[in-house]
Amino acid sequence: MQRPDSLIGVATLAQWIEGARPRTLPTAVSPVLVGTGAAIGDGIIAPGRAMLALVVSLALVIGVNFANDYSDGIRGTDDQRVGPLRLVGSRAAAPATVRGAAFVAFAVAGLAGLTLVSLSNQWWLVAVGAACIAGAWFYTGGRRPYGYAGLGELAVFVFFGPVGVLGTLITQGAQPGALAVVAALAVGMLTSAVLVANNLRDIPTDEVAGKRTLAVLLGDTDTRRLYVALVALPLLFSALAGLLSWPLLLALASTPLAVPLARRVLGGAAGRDLIPVLARTSLLLLAWSALTALGLGLGLVVGRPLV
Q1: What's the predicted TM-score (pTM) here?
Q2: 3-state DSSP call for residue 149?
Q3: Among 11, 18, 40, which Cα is nearest to 295's?
């Protein structure tokens, strides 16, 4: 239901920045880091293309955040929020304005993506980019948003894991090796963990709003177990991958970030107590990805094959 115009304010710059959800931006940076690290490990250094990939990823994340704000806001899903500000749900901005901001972000992602594709001559990635933008919009938009059917985590896993990491790698002219592929899957897991933490917090309000996220479908206990698995498996990858290329062991330095998070989630943290978990899971994702990127890049220097 649209908000009456008389009740809608004019959002400040600070509110627009908060509405863009800057704490989620590590989900945009991380796949580009790992993909670039893998490209360097393959002997290719292409900073210009890496920056374009980063622009695409950042614009997509900001776009999906505004699109989610708009779609959930007009449905009334955000009327009783526990988490940070939502522009439409709080009536800080008109729905059409927030929708327009999402479309601008998607346009930036599209333009940067087309430039990157033209430079790399990987024209088939145009279809992948279109799928990314469609996935961003229909997560909570449209008549049957897949985020309301328990498929949000799967989409995040695919788009921010294999698509984001390997797309970055391929557009820089490198070929995906086995370790790069598994690292891409691990990035997808950690990014999904960010969404799982968010949806775990929102189970009570999502149930009332009829938003059937994976957390709602699984229930509180199994969602907590899923979160811990998604956080633990990338660390297991780092340990095993270190047997093939020892620099990948560097990512295990992020373990001290993971352990307290797992304990807090398994310990029953709920509601506002999960807000720091969400932010620190993003930090864990960024730390693990940066260290893994360094390890993949150093694989070339130390002369160990990256398979």
Answers
A1: 0.90
A2: strand
A3: 40
- Return all residues near 47 (Cβ < 8 A) that are at least 6 apart: none
Written as one string, the DSSP assignment of 192-236 is: HHHHHHHHHHTHHHHHHHT-B-HHHHH-HHHHHHHHHHHHHHHHH
**Strands (DSSP E) along the chain, which ranges?**
none
> Which residue stretches of 76-139 are H helix?
95-120, 125-138
Terminal CA-CA length for the chain = 54
User: How far apart are the C-alpha atoms of 160 and 286, rounded to whole Å?
Assistant: 13
**Which band of pLDDT confidence, cut at 50, 70 and 90, is reported for residue 10?**
confident
Q: pLDDT tens across 87-116, in order?
A: 888 888 899 999 999 999 999 999 999 999
Cα dihedral across residues 297, 185, 27, 194: positive or negative: negative
Residues 6+ apart with CB under 8 A from 281: 190, 193, 194, 197, 231, 261
pLDDT tens figures, 120-135? 999 999 999 999 999 9
